[in-house]
Amino acid sequence: MKIFLDTADVSEIRRAAEAGLIDGVTTNPSLMAKVAGDRDPKELFLEICNAVDGPISAEVVAVDAAQMISEGKRLAALHDNIVVKLPLTEDGLRTCRALTSEGIRTNVTLCFSAPQALLAAKAGASYISPFIGRLDDIGHDGMDLIAEIRQVYDNYGIMTEILAASIRHPQHVVQALMIGADCGTMPPKVLYQLLKHPLTDRGLEAFLADWNAKVGKEL
Ligand code: E4P
After folding, report:
1. What are the beta bridge partners of residue 25?
2. Which CATH superfamily hosts domain 2-214?
3. Which atom of ligand 1 is nearest to the CA of 186?
């Protein structure tokens, strides 16, 4: 499963990319708004593209298809790594079809049902982003949606990649891996929770204590 970092914070992105922990980045207008300030958002997207050599999802903010298509083309022209992120609306899917026909990769976002995921795939989406955590928030089991989409896509040989989104904790990641999601996007906090284990820390502490007590030399 490819791991994407769900943030527009370039220092977090560089840290994770330099450690080889991530395959790409997803952003959304809320994440961009947190860090963009007065900066030209296109410059920020470019900075992110230069920090990670992988798919970088950049979301349109227009709501009608004609404007979304223009925004999508402008975003795609910024860098080869840009994947244009589109909302799962009728206009979003029209835009998806139009951009796909020009060879532009798309990530259809805000997916909350398997039929929505089917329609996005029919429109040519490269990625579908089902939101796990936001379904959990309203008392559903978000992971059921990942399983349903996996089954539907496998039944019909659909190649759109399932990008498990709105991941809130490491168990979401484990379950998405077990189901066979193609990608998962998570905030930095969850990424580093995946890396840490108390037994790793305790084990390392004991190894170094033994070494220093009896040998104490650098290698
Ligand atoms: C996905 O592409 C979204 O940016 C993100 O995963 C949403 O997560 P949230 O529900 O925690 O805001």
Report:
1. 5, 56
2. Aldolase class I (3.20.20.70)
3. 6
